[in-house]
UniProtKB/TrEMBL annotation, chain A:
Transmembrane spans: none
Family assignment from sequence similarity: Belongs to the WD repeat SEC13 family.
PROSITE patterns xref list: WD_REPEATS_2 (PS50082), WD_REPEATS_REGION (PS50294)
WD repeat positions: 239-271
A cellular component term, taken from the record's GO annotations: nuclear pore outer ring
Biological process according to GO: cellular response to amino acid starvation; positive regulation of TORC1 signaling; protein transport
Protein name, UniProt field: Uncharacterized protein
The organism of origin for this protein: Chenopodium quinoa
Keyword Transport: yes
Gene Ontology molecular function, alphabetical: structural molecule activity
Subcellular location: Nucleus envelope
From TrEMBL, chain B:
Record's function text: Functions as a component of the nuclear pore complex (NPC).
Biological processes annotated in GO: mRNA export from nucleus; positive regulation of DNA-templated transcription; protein import into nucleus
Name the UniProt record assigns to this protein: Nuclear pore complex protein Nup85
InterPro entries from the UniProt entry: Nucleoporin_Nup85
Source species: Chenopodium quinoa
Length: 288, 594
């Protein structure tokens, strides 16, 4: 959603700078979620009380003593808003908004670590960053999925995994790990700097891009699960070009062009050609 | 018959697009001013030139038999586009035009004769005639002395004007003799050639005293006789040479294969280091290489051109049609045609002034609908005009889900920005039961807590609004009945007036009977009515009414077992108090009725 951000009076509430600002889906009001550099997360909303002028008010603060918030993303549909937050201890929390009119009514729906089998736990994980990307929703489809990768000292947490909400049993499950068969599980481990799930307007498969120190991997993920409930994955390309870390990746609305940027300050656009070969389409460098 | 309509449609489409690209006056057209040979007032664009080239080859099936002449016309219109990077016949003529005013004796200037030959090579006959008429021998005081010379010039003028052309017609004022069919043309061509040869061999040349005139005119005759050396020397790039070959050497060239062969030959004779995009396009077309044509269109003219040109490329060409319409897994399940439409739609979508055109392209292909949904979802809804436009597009393409989502966004925006009426209006339009129920809850709580006239006023209008349309009110419609109930209840409690109490009971029964009253409000309503249920002066509810309420209470107990049941914010003993009060009332009512 495009909008000019009004100045948030964060100084009076928080000391510290904002590391991430994210718009709440517009069906829930004009609101932003802010992650501060001390790892706290708060929600701010533009509202007008009765007979009052518009102002930004804090709706809620998510408290967590043990870990910092690294990344957040909103997902779900116009009837059900969910918030996924990844923490520095390798845990993921999924919150659900109880009252669609009130951004102060969050309930914790699930809490888990980014691992394939739910048995193993990594208590001493230390994560520098995390990246979450929801499946871009179309219409009122009830499918809830997101992909998540960590940049941590625990390889098992790092590898990007696709999580899906199992409506029947009301729980989150990993349905795919974006790793080659020989590298899955313990060996999958390159720290993940960014993930981005591409919009899908007609493909019979999903596309997810994952940035690690090796480059930007383009993954095809099947739509239909096998008997164990897993989705097939295939690494289609590994794109290199950026000097240093890739921080951010964004897909265009057709899901055909990927824009990436990182510590080198250059924006690169990537596309697949008619033969399905991915290549760098354009480079945008800062002018000065 | 069907085939015909198809071509008519394609041609109509092409003409329409072409007209959007502006009008072009042929630069080789006749100008009134006797000393001006070119019009330069309107700059033609490469885009239009490219489109017309596509039209000639792909759309205009009626003029396929005289395609070379179509190309002659095309170059006459667009030769100056090639002048940007290199010499052309056009640039030579332009140069001459600048000098012409300062020339005293035009026929002494070699440029004059060069331009004449060049213009003739490209078939610009009117310019040739006009230039020849500027020849000094026409001046009145000279005719006596230069009679033979003038006679030769005039003889060439006549031959130029009568040149046979294999085409149905010429624009008004244009020179040449038109022949519709080949056999007539061949006869005309042979006669004309014979006359040129006859003049070439005539003895009058000896009597022509002006050397430059003699040489210049004979060169013109050589061009008319198809002298390859002269044609090559008077043209400046392979396209010009190509056109001159059509006119004077191979007027019968038909079929793309031979057209391509001739082009290859001309390219060899006049290679260009940096070919103009139009040249690349022409080679692609002649070589029947659809990919090259598309690549050239895309590179030089951008996504608009490619998107629209595909319509022409696929018209009646099975190979191109397969190539462009085939769904490709590599592209994510779209065809090349669809891909280009999506790309162009994205260009349109990126600007506030053009995004509304994007749906036309998006809805013309299957995958575009998904993108249109994303595009609409991204449009701001805070301004009524924009919102209505988005909704109009949704209605047009039957995107009901998107439409309802947009209305939800608008509804919430207004609701949260102090415009509660508009908020509810849009949520009702969106039939958003979930949000409307939450709003009902808020209003109910408010009305329940305070019914003093002052604070009630601000809600009153809203509640009236909600009552007007029961179908879409989404559980809010009962609120104004509730307000009436609360009023009479208040009066009953305050004044202990039995009339008011009876009225309150009526309202209560109406509310409880009404299916629009949400279940979660039943208990609060009954709890509010405790005073009525235990009225001192005697039971206010009869047996039937009491039973109705008891049944509702029973229903409520069952509903409480469901997981989605929302407990009302009431004291814990509320339910038992209500049950007791109802039981007491029932007992009293039975006694009374006996």
């Amino acid at each position: 959603m495009e909008k000019t951000v009004a100045t948030l009076e964060t100084g009076t509430v928080h000391e510290g700078s904002i590391v991430k600002v994210l718009w709440v889906p517009p069906e829930y009001g004009d609101a932003v979620a802010c992650v501060l550099d001390d790892g706290t997360l708060s929600l701010w909303e533009e509202v007008a009380g009765d007979g009052q002028s518009l102002q930004w008010k804090i709706c809620t603060k998510f408290l967590n003593k043990n870990a910092r918030v690294l990344d957040i993303q909103f997902g779900g549909s116009s009837t059900c808003l969910k918030l996924v937050a990844a923490y520095s201890d390798g845990y993921v929390k999924v919150y659900e908004l109880h009252n669609p009119l009130d951004l102060n009514t969050w309930q914790l729906q699930a809490e888990f670590q980014n691992v394939i089998d739910s048995v193993s736990k990594f208590a001493k994980a230390s994560c520098l960053s995390a990246s979450i990307s929801w499946i871009p929703q179309k219409g009122e489809s009830q499918q809830l999925s997101f992909v998540l990768g960590f940049n941590s000292d625990v390889p098992q947490l790092n590898s990007s995994k696709v999580w899906e909400f199992d409506q029947l049993h009301q729980r989150w499950l990993t349905v795919a790990e974006l790793a080659l068969p020989e590298n899955s599980g313990e060996n999958s481990g390159d720290p993940v700097h960014a993930v981005a799930w591409a919009p899908n307007i007609c493909r019979p498969y999903e596309i997810i891009s994952v940035a690690t120190q090796m480059g930007i991997a383009i993954w095809h993920v099947g739509l239909n699960p096998d008997v164990d409930g897993h989705l097939s994955v295939e690494k289609i390309a590994l794109l290199s070009g950026h000097q240093g870390e890739v921080w951010q990746m964004e897909w265009d609305m057709s899901g055909m062009t990927l824009a990436t940027t990182g510590s080198d300050g250059v924006v690169r656009l990537w596309q697949s050609n008619l033969n399905g070969v991915w290549h760098e389409q354009a480079v945008l460098e800062p002018t000065s | 018959m069907l085939e015909m309509t198809r071509w008519e449609y394609v041609m109509e489409y092409s003409k329409e697009i072409n007209s959007l690209l502006g009008t072009t006056k042929s630069m080789a057209s006749i100008v009134e001013d006797p000393r001006r040979i070119l019009t330069v007032d309107e700059e033609p664009t490469s885009l239009k030139a490219a489109w017309e080239l596509l039209e000639i080859f792909y759309a205009d099936k009626q003029s396929q038999t005289w395609l070379p002449e179509r190309l002659v016309d095309w170059l006459a219109d667009y030769d100056n586009l090639f002048s940007e990077t290199q010499h052309t016949v056009y640039s030579k003529l332009l140069d001459l035009q600048h000098h012409i005013l300062h020339l005293q004796v035009i026929e002494d200037d070699p440029k004059y004769w060069d331009c004449l030959s060049s213009a003739l090579s490209l078939g610009w006959l009117d310019i040739v005639v006009k230039l020849l008429r500027l020849h000094g021998s026409y001046e009145l005081d000279q005719i006596g002395k230069r009679e033979t010379e003038n006679g030769l010039v005039e003889a060439v003028v006549v031959l130029v004007s009568k040149m046979p052309r294999l085409r149905p017609e010429l624009q008004a004022g244009r020179l040449g003799e038109c022949y519709r069919n080949k056999s007539d043309f061949v006869k005309g061509w042979e006669t004309w050639r014979a006359r040129v040869t006859k003049l070439e061999c005539s003895s009058f040349w000896v009597d022509c005293g002006h050397q430059k005139t003699r040489e210049g005119l004979r060169k013109i005759l050589q061009i008319m006789l198809g002298n390859t050396e002269h044609l090559s020397a008077t043209t400046y790039n392979w396209v010009e040479l190509y056109i001159s070959h059509f006119l004077y050497i191979r007027p019968f060239t038909v079929g793309l294969e031979s057209l391509y062969g001739l082009a290859q030959k001309c390219i060899q004779l006049k290679p260009v280091s940096h070919p103009h995009s139009l040249m690349g396009l022409m080679v692609g077309i002649l070589g029947e290489n659809t990919e090259v044509v598309l690549a050239e269109c895309s590179r030089a003219f951008g996504p608009w051109m490619v998107t629209h040109a595909i319509e022409l490329l696929t018209a009646g060409n099975d190979q191109s049609e397969i190539l462009l319409h085939e769904v490709r897994q590599n592209l994510g399940g779209v065809s090349i045609e669809e891909l280009h439409r999506l790309v162009y739609a994205q260009v349109l979508a990126s600007h506030q002034l053009t995004w509304q055109i994007a749906p036309v392209y998006l809805t013309s292909c299957k995958p575009g609908i998904g993108m249109l949904e994303i595009l609409l979802y991204r449009q701001p809804v805070h301004f009524k005009q924009g919102l209505l436009k988005s909704l109009e597009i949704c209605r047009l393409y039957e995107l009901d889900d998107v439409s309802s989502n947009i209305m939800k966004i608008a509804g919430i925006h207004h609701w949260k920005h102090g415009r509660k009426g508009s908020g509810i209006f849009w949520l009702q339009q969106a039939q958003d039961e979930i949000r409307l129920n939450k709003i009902a809850q808020q209003l109910f709580d408010f009305v329940g807590k305070s019914i003093s006239e002052e604070s009630f006023k601000q809600w009153e209008g809203l509640i009236e609004l909600l009552g007007s349309d029961t179908r879409t009110a989404g559980g809010l419609e009962f609120l104004h009945k509730y307000r009436d109930f609360k009023r009479s209840l208040q009066q009953a409690v305050d004044g202990k007036a039995s009339d008011a109490a009876r009225q309150a009971v009526e309202s209560l029964i109406m509310l409880m009977k009404n299916s629009s009253t949400p279940q979660r409000f039943w208990l609060p309503l009954l709890y509010d009515s405790l005073k009525l249920l235990t009225w001192r002066e005697g039971p206010l509810l009869d047996v039937a009414q009491t039973n109705l309420l008891l049944n509702k209470l029973q229903e409520l107990s069952i509903a409480r077992m469901r997981p989605d049941y929302v407990e009302a914010d009431l004291p814990t003993q509320a339910l038992s108090s209500v049950r007791l009060a109802l039981a007491t009332n029932l007992g009293r009512a039975i006694l009374e009725e006996q």
